[in-house]
Amino acid sequence: MRREAAGMCGTVRHAHAEKGAHGNNEFPRSLWIKRDPSGQRSSAAECHRAMRLTPSKILFTLILGVLILTTWLIVSQSGPDHYIVQNCQNSEEFQDALHKLAKDTHDVLSNLGLTHALCYGALWGQIRISRSLPWENDVEFCVLNEELMQKDEASIFSTFRRKQLHLSYDSVDGVYTVSNLATTPPSDLARGVVQLIVFEEDSKTARLPGGKGMLRRVGWKRRVMPPDCEGIAILECFPPNLVTPPLPERNFGGYFLPVPREGVEIQKYHYIDNWWKEVIPKNC
Predict the structure, then answer these.
(1) H helices then E strands: how many in the chain?
(2) Smallest Cα–Cα separation from 135: which of 102, 190, 88, 191?
(3) Alpha-helix residue ranges (DSSP H) falling in 18-83
(4) Of 59, 97, 174, 218, which residue is 20 to 30 A from 143 by alpha carbon distance?
(5) Residue 81 · residue 238 · CB < 8 Å
């Protein structure tokens, strides 16, 4: 059918090309309409109908795009145990400023009534040396989307600004970034940031005792993922009881900050393949 449609379009275009030969705007009907070998009547309308976008074609394209994105995310979620960093040993001044930024962020989140706990690399630093790991440029807090949704977003941003802190949001990855307005490039201290990594309860994930679902990362790149916490590590799921208030507080760079319950337990979910190892950057 596609070859027949292409042939019909070619017939009509040929008719336009010969317009001048007839000396007027009228074409012999034989140039506009031809009969194919089966005797069926063909026209330019049939050609356009064959070439136009249809709901089924659009749906197929969307499904194909989702499958490609899903495959890429699943393949890219697993990496080597070792990674490369810019600095293996940040200066004492930098680390002190980073710890102070974490404390200031903690104070703002507490004033807003938002549950938060050290997680990821920051939690490894607290567990191992009670401060940020020497090569880390950021401190991570895990926060809850359900609590954030109950707050006015403009009020949250203005509260941080009043404390001389800049807040930005990455909707792709579902992460807020906090930086100090008093330190700007080219100052080395400007590299230090706090990341608020947003989680929400997903009722579609495996049900836990008490009827609750697992907490999973937000961000539109994860919205297309099926609710399979065990099969899709990029969701970074963990049980909500690990961040149920009140949370214990532990020393982190001279400040006492909230950490998840049960010590290293949350890391078993976020570092499934190597939580029992002490992983350091490849170049350190």
Answers:
(1) 11, 10
(2) 88
(3) 19-22, 29-32, 44-51, 55-76
(4) 97
(5) no
pLDDT per position as a tens digit, 199-231? 999 877 655 555 568 999 999 988 878 888 888
In the structure encoding, which two tokens stand for residue 142, read together?
């895990």
Average pLDDT, the chain: 81
Q: Pull the structure tokens for residue 281.
A: 């950057």
Contacts of 118 (CB under 8 A, 6+ apart): 126, 139, 140, 141, 142, 250, 252, 257, 258, 259, 260
Work out whether the CA dihedral 22, 28, 32, 34 comes out positive or negative: negative
Rg value, the chain, Cα:
29
Residue 100's H or E segment, with its range, is helix 92-111
How far apart, in Å, are the Cα atoms of 118 and each of 72, 171, 194, 233?
29, 21, 10, 20
Beta-sheet pairing, 138-144 with 116-118: antiparallel
The domain locations on the chain are 1-52, 92-270
pLDDT tens by residue, 121-180: 999 999 999 999 999 999 999 999 999 999 999 999 999 999 999 999 999 999 999 999
What does the pLDDT average to over 230-241? 90
- Residue 248 carries which DSSP code? P
CATH 3.30.1360 fits 92-270, yes or no: no
Lowest mean pLDDT, pick from 78-82, 106-110, 157-161: 78-82
What tokens appear for 11 in the block?
């017939």
CA-to-CA distance for 141 and 40, rounded, in angstroms? 69
